Amino acid sequence: MERTYAEENISTEQPTPREEAWFQSEDGDQERPGRDQTPPCERTQEINSSPLLGSGLPREDRIAKRADFLRVYENGKRFEGRFMTVFILPVNKDSHRLGVTATKKAIGKAHDRNRAKRLLRESFRLSRAELSAIPVKLDWVLNARRSLLHVKVDKPLAEFRALAAKVAKIDAEGLFATEITKRSER
Hints:
The protein is an alpha+beta fold. The chain has six helices and four strands; from the N terminus they run ααβββααβαα. It has a domain at 61-185: Ribosomal Protein S5, domain 2 (2-Layer Sandwich). 38% of the residues lie in helices and 12% in strands. Strand 1 (77-80) and strand 2 form a beta hairpin. The longest helix has 19 residues, at 154-172.
């Protein structure tokens, strides 16, 4: 039954050949390279372009040791913000140092924690002018908050710059200088 159905519905006529069928000639296709050749590039591709180089924090400007984080938490001043909690502590260093934390409890998944840390590091890096206005060098520890995940870099940057201005105003009264001298006398 199936045999007769298939024989009745299949056409036995052959399609007419196309007149301009493409056949590869001895020269080959001049437009496209073969498999073993790389395609010609119209522009040079540089992975490490100049605007991207040198935009990170140098090693000496980072807080990496747990003991340094704990020292800033215990002895430093705390400032609450919408996107971050900031701890600062005056130090006898040549530059401001940064430590960033984003906990699993506060933020959640690893990719969210990584994004939060990137945003905070970028806020610190872009605020170099505001930080240079503070004569006393500080250790900064920035703790990310969950609200940071729903914004772009401009909002945490504005918050960090406002906080740096607030710290500069506090430092104008000389509070940090007295703390450094007290600590060095111990």
